[in-house]
Amino acid sequence: MSKYGEKNIKAYGNNFTTMTPGPVAKFLRTCVIFQFIRFIFINIKMLVVVSKSH
Amino acid sequence: MARLVVLGGGVSGHTAATFAAEWLGSEHEVVVVTPNAKWNWIPSNIWVGVGQMTKEEVTFDLAPVYAKAGIIYHQAKALGIHPEGNETSDKPYVVVESTEAGSAGKIENIEYDYLINATGPKLNFAATPGLGDANGLGEFTVSVCTADHAVHASEELHKCIQTMKAGKRQKFLIGTGHGMCTCQGAAFEYIFNIEHELNKAGVRDMADIKWISNESFLGDFGVGGLHMKAMGFAVSSKIFAESLFAERNVDWIIGAHVNKVEKGKAHYELLDGSMGEEEFDFSMLIPPFAGVGLKAINKAGEDITATVFAPNGFMKVDANYAAGAYENWKASDWPSTYQNPTYGNLFACGIAFAPPHPISKPMSSPNGTPITPTPPRTGMPSGIMGKAVAHSVCDRILKGPDAPLHEASMAHMGAACVASAGKGLFTGTAAAMTIYPVVPDFEKYPGTGRDTEYTFGEIGLAGHWIKHILHHLFIWKAKLKPGWTLIPE
Ligand SMILES: Cc1cc2nc3c(=O)[nH]c(=O)nc-3n(C[C@H](O)[C@H](O)[C@H](O)COP(=O)(O)OP(=O)(O)OC[C@H]3O[C@@H](n4cnc5c(N)ncnc54)[C@H](O)[C@@H]3O)c2cc1C
Predict the structure, then answer these.
(1) Which residues of B touch A53 (CB under 8 A)?
(2) How confident is the model over B154-182, as a mean pLDDT?
(3) pTM: predicted TM-score of the whole model, two decimal places
(4) Quick one: DSSP state of residue B30?
(5) Closest partner residue to A52 among B246, B429, B436, by Cβ?
(6) Is the link from the previous residue into B437 a cis peptide, with omega within 30 of 0?
(7) How is A1-54 classified by DSSP, letter by letter?
(8) Looking at residues B113-128, what average pLDDT do you find?
(9) What is the CA B150 to chain-centroid distance, rounded?
(10) Strand B170-176 and strand B207-212: pairing?
(11) Structural domains for chain B
């Protein structure tokens, strides 16, 4: 798991200079409780942008 | 009684027509001319293209919806606009050709007082030899641009999955099929949905997946990239995009103009002028977009298409088409009322209006081949423009021909975009992004061109839930079900 993203990095290849998520970032992506909180947060952010755009 | 004719019943035209019918009531006529019998929620074609939704789930019949709204519906395609009428009448009209079974090919003239052109893009597969021809998509690649294309793409994908299950590796090549494409976001969604499905099918280790696009950097998306607030930094979308590609083990070729497609092989030219080729077993390459080829004719019967339309076939509106080089571009070049400068009762919205120039910095190879994303006009801006234009027309009909026009400039509006990276109630992910404004304003927001308070993005399950909810919400709205006017574009 900890090598989840890192193992795909190819030295001096296209993706050598980017960042890859660690195990916590990866886990949180599909952690239902955390994502439920993010769901509310993202919706609020989007509604603000939508209201600024109409 | 006044008559508004809307050409195109897609995201922008359907929004314009339904709001206009609501605001005008039965005193005036709203007519929609669109060639398809069904409305398509195009963003969900991605899920049809991987077999996670059916065509029926992303489309519905337009006729009953327009009947309910009191809209006169012609299943037809517009061929030409006569904004001055003809030698026998001053009344402007459009020439349409029926696409309805039983009357297909029948030509008819429809007079109008106001006309909204929302005909969207022509999928110009013919621009790249082998990608397609005048009849549309060719035989070597697939597409997800229409629901039917997506059904076919899913069938081909599942054949590849069976081949991999039988022990043979497969190469996937996804991206843009020409140096002047837009809509990189759709290809981005499709590549990660494929990757997700291959994982689910247990064959990911049998697949080599590669991205090819005309962006000069990954994460450009035709909007010159965007900077998002993350961990106290303003981080470029390049970093986030590259990170996702690295994480999901997807390699990339960028700055590429695909100039020829053959069976199992794409030829391309890069921004440095070098040529290359890439083999594939499965490929989805977005075609470039052009206007749908409407003609404009004046009262004397002369062709004035070049006056009304830009050379790419999109309709001229109140944009600054003389901005010149990138260094001179300004946010104010972008149109705000979408009114045609020659004919005041003519408007264009959504993909159908001619943008003043790209948003991404134009680039070309040393051979002179332009390799630059053209500007995207995604769902939310297309809907907002449609509504603003409908508002303007309704005001002019109801309050008089001098009523002020409503404005909806892409340089003053933001967009919320949710890019799916895989479908699943608990395993799905999507990149949820907001961008404000869509067109960067470097005078107002020096440096990044955008307000980083309102430009953000993150990937996760929450984004997927939002994408799925939006699918139902927008179909609900498009079907004019209770409360539809309250759902924002
Ligand atoms: C695969 C894919 C995925 C996408 N995903 C997203 C997403 O997730 N989020 C997002 O915001 N945007 C997304 N987009 C972009 C979005 O679909 C467009 O921004 C939107 O459809 C543009 O609206 P429009 O009304 O201008 O064009 P369209 O929706 O294409 O509508 C044009 C209409 O005009 C009709 N027409 C064509 N020719 C004629 C003619 N001669 N006469 C009359 N009518 C005609 C067409 O049949 C069509 O009904 C995606 C696009 C694609 C291809």
Answers:
(1) 380, 384, 412-415, 436
(2) 98
(3) 0.97
(4) E
(5) B436
(6) yes
(7) -TTTTGGG--TTSTTTTS----HHHHHHHT-HHHHHHHHHHHHHHHHHHHHHH-
(8) 98
(9) 15
(10) parallel
(11) 3-123+289-361+375-399 (3.50.50.60)
